[in-house]
Write a structure and sequence with these properties.
Layout (H helix, E strand, L loop, with lengths): L23 E3 L5 E5 L9 E2 L6 E2 L4 E4 L8 E2 L4 E10 L5 E9 L19 H10 L12 H4 L10 E5 L9 H8 L1 H15 L3 E7 L3 H10 L6 E6 L8 H9 L14 E5 H13 L5 E7 L7 E6 L4 H7 L9 E4 L6 E2 L13 E5 L18 H5 L6 H9 L19 H5 L6 H11 L3
Parallel strand pairs: 1-14, 9-10, 9-12, 10-11, 13-17
Antiparallel strand pairs: 2-8, 3-5, 4-7, 5-6, 7-8, 13-14, 15-16, 15-17
Helix pairs in contact: 1-4, 1-7, 3-5, 4-5, 4-7, 10-12
Bound molecules: iron/sulfur cluster (SF4) (2 copies).
The site of one iron/sulfur cluster (SF4) has 14 residues, from helix 11 and helix 12.
């Protein structure tokens, strides 16, 4: 059978072999955590603790200030030592709570509930909301909001995104191999909350072991299917995934819920299960630490708030002098100027690129109108025009070329023979236009 896919896209070398076979390891508990109060799309949280206050692991330290917001909890027990603004992975200053770890690992009171499936959809959704769960693939959209579609937009399908199409990243792959039944339980909870009778897990077929494990884990579930996808970037983008699996198209400017679909990442499904089963808030996640610039690439379960520097050290430190450190994957991630930035709920990877892996060009050329970027754009846009208009300062005009439909996958930039920084131009226009 032909593998499911979408139109456009590219096949960058994936380098997943560096870490895909390495089991998830517990990262050591950091002596100090820096926990951002804004780790999601939406309103930042309001701090609920004071300097000097003692906290237990899982205690609330930031409460939501709007519907599109998610609470933040501490990932260690200890004492609050500072409240200050720190840069996040994108370089924006965000408020954060700094906590010194007392090493006692004292948990706040959690409510274990083996009968979680007997809870009502509203009660399950409340647990997801209270646990501060956000999209862990990197988008960080609060999960309870996705679980609250308006009445006029009924949902009939939930898709778990196990594509993990970004090169290098293997955190979701390892979760599928090591905890497949937790993912299926998470999916079943999501389906119950949304009143949906059909669920899919979409996986690129370069992860045969994950496909096998997920098929095994879902074998008793008649309404859950594992969909094998072609290996292609950006196969894991929501709109591409939906097109590939159920052949529905999200309208321009629309959302998956407009066509009856909710998509959640593999890690998010596990967090949903842990919240409903154990009452556990989202305070840790699996992070792939990889690239030829780090000695022993691997997958670490790391506390939110752990400085990235400590994860790199846990993987043997740098190999010679690295050329670049990126949080996330190489296509959509963000290059860092410091490795003191902490792990957040959306941190899927720490990619340390060596000189040999990294290519850079100070200068880019004019558009030679080769059309390559248009051929590969999964959204059917004209990236060449977007970049030219933005370069010349015609920011408002980019809207006529559907600037806002660009989800910044970087595919166009990857293929451009003139090395034009198309995504950067897109981001510039997005930040300057009047919406
Ligand atoms: S224009 Fe946007 S959506 Fe299209 S390939 Fe470029 S970054 Fe991706
Ligand atoms: S790939 Fe680069 S050079 Fe070719 S059309 Fe697009 S922007 Fe122009």
């Amino acid at each position: 059978m032909a593998l499911l896919t979408f139109k456009g896209g590219v096949h960058p070398p994936d380098h997943k072999e560096l870490s895909s076979g390495i089991p998830i390891k517990e990262a050591s508990s950091p002596s100090r955590v820096l926990i951002q109060l804004s780790q999601h799309i939406g309103a930042p949280c309001k701090c609920t603790v004071q300097i000097g206050q003692e906290v237990k692991k899982g205690d609330l330290i930031g409460e939501p200030t709007g519907f599109v917001s998610a609470p933040v909890h501490t990932s260690v027990s200890g004492k609050v030592v500072a409240l200050m603004d720190i840069p996040n992975a994108m370089g924006r200053m965000v408020p954060a709570v700094i906590i010194d770890n007392n090493g006692k690992e004292e948990w706040t009171q959690l409510r274990d509930n083996p009968d979680y499936m007997k809870l009502s959809p509203e009660e399950l959704k409340e647990k997801v909301k209270d646990a501060g769960i956000v999209g862990m693939g990197g988008a960080t959209f609060p999960t309870h909001v996705k679980l609250s579609p308006p009445k006029e937009k009924p949902i009939d399908v939930v898709i778990i995104n196990g594509a993990e199409c970004e090169p290098y990243l293997t955190a979701d792959h390892r979760l599928m191999v090591e905890t497949p039944s937790d993912i299926i339980e998470g999916l079943k909870i999501l389906m119950k909350v949304l009143g949906v009778s059909k669920g899919y897990v979409g996986i690129e077929n370069n992860k045969p072991d994950a496909i096998e494990k997920m098929k095994e884990a879902s074998s008793g579930e008649a309404n859950i299917e594992v969909a094998e996808l072609e290996v292609k970037y950006p196969q894991g983008a929501e709109k591409m995934l939906i097109k590939a699996i159920i052949d529905r198209e999200v309208p321009a400017g629309g959302l998956p819920m407009d066509i009856g679909v909710v998509v959640q990442n593999v890690g998010t499904a596990v967090a949903v299960f842990e919240a409903c089963r154990y009452g556990k808030p989202l305070i840790e996640r699996v992070v792939t630490v990889t690239g030829l610039g780090v000695k022993n690439p691997g997958n670490l379960r790391a506390r939110v708030g752990t400085p990235v520097r400590e994860l790199i050290e846990a993987c043997g430190g740098f190999n010679n002098s690295p050329a670049k450190v990126i949080l996330g994957g190489p296509m959509m991630g963000f290059a860092q100027y410091t490795i003191d930035v902490p792990v957040a709920k959306g941190t899927s990877g720490v990619l340390v690129m060596s000189e040999e892996e990294h290519s850079t060009s100070d200068k880019y050329g004019p558009c030679i109108r080769c059309g390559s970027c248009i051929d590969v754009c999964p959204m059917g846009l004209m990236p060449s025009m977007l970049s030219i208009l933005s370069e010349k300062g015609f920011y408002e005009e980019t809207k006529e070329y559907n600037l806002l439909d660009c989800f910044e996958c970087g595919t166009c930039t990857y293929v451009c023979p003139s090395k034009r920084p198309i995504v950067q131009f897109v981001r510039l226009s997005k930040s300057l236009i009047k919406r």
